[in-house]
């Protein structure tokens, strides 16, 4: 064995420990507060990978692809992401979000074969996250009422996703898995009050992949999950829940020739489960505060292209159009400012002595959004600012992601 290589068990443990301790993402570059970038290959192709049964970076998007890999694999990556957000509120001046705007986003996938027909895999990633923090007196409509004006809104989520895949025949595989969501931190602070909590819950996922020669079809679905949150409002014990939406992906991948492949994906996020956030006293059950959203399900269209420059080098390109869930009668909030967005991405994979080194870059452009509501807002106990003139103004944002990763077969 090459002295530079670790055996498969020690390398798996080391990478698992590294990823578990480093996942700190708390922003979102997809619609709502979803994070779709689960591998470096995903960044490079704008996440159009659900029908890919060749690139190991696609395993986190469709675990049914495990059956088509002849060997075990470890896929690990680290992404540096930046997200810039600002607002010019009605009657105010331009103000930048002062929350954390740069992040390290690790991801990990490990898989190995049980026998010819069965394969197991484990993904660890951050499928949801958010952070916004507005300075005091950003929004004039609150009239300096610090108990009502928003400050830090934060969500940190890790998903531990074990899967098992069953190969029905040489061309068809199905997979089943468990999503265990660990909400490590949830904040809904005002300028004078800290509301924070944490919680865990589980859901499930299914996937399949059909290799039809030059055309491959993939499907992946993750169930919605309501995570119970226990925390505090100041010094008061409170309880709430966070609705993590379902995600459903369809993909078609066409092999134009031996070098070039093109994939088109439809991605749908079930944001209609995000109706409101209600916070109650843990002891008495009394309603303390609530925030109404009424989001809608949102689609994303993704295009990914891979080109094998030679047997060891692959070039990757991608584009996506993501819809915002804040449509129709959804209530706009400066805590979760969102709009339609586009991504443009590029990347490369280079195999050297049995190791594959990957790099990917994504530029995220969010449509500028001008919020104008005729619903007035008067500060006071129980007053709901979402969807009112309290958040009227012009919002601008953009993001960048640069990722490096390494893959190893064993």
Q: Which descriptors apply to this entry?
A:
mainly beta, 21 strands, disordered N terminus, 2 helices, 14-stranded antiparallel beta barrel, Porin, 410 residues
Written overview of the protein:
Helices cover 5% and strands 55% of the residues. The chain has 410 residues and is mainly beta. The protein has a single domain, classed as Outer membrane protein transport protein (OMPP1/FadL/TodX) (Porin, Beta Barrel), CATH 2.40.160. The protein has a 14-stranded antiparallel β-barrel. Strand 12 and strand 13 form a beta hairpin. The longest helix has 15 residues. The protein is globular and about 65 Å long. The protein starts with 7 loop residues before the first helix and ends with a strand.
Order of helices and strands: HHEEEEEEEEEEEEEEEEEEEEE
CATH architecture: Beta Barrel
Q: Whole-Å distance between the termini?
A: 12 Å
Kindly provide the name of the CATH class: Mainly Beta
Structural domain tally? 1
Counting DSSP H or I runs of 4 or more residues, the number of helices is 2
The helix content, as a percent range, equals: under 10%
Question: What is the overall shape?
Answer: globular
> Strands of the biggest beta sheet: in what spatial order?
1-3-4-6-7-8-9-12-13-16-17-18-19-21
**SS-based class:** mainly beta
Please report which band the strand proportion falls in: under 5%, 5-15%, 15-25%, 25-35%, 35-45% or over 45%: over 45%
Instruction: Name the poorly predicted regions.
Output: 1-27
Return the average pLDDT rounded to an integer. Answer: 91
CATH topology: the name is Porin
Radius of gyration, in angstroms, nearest whole number:
22 Å
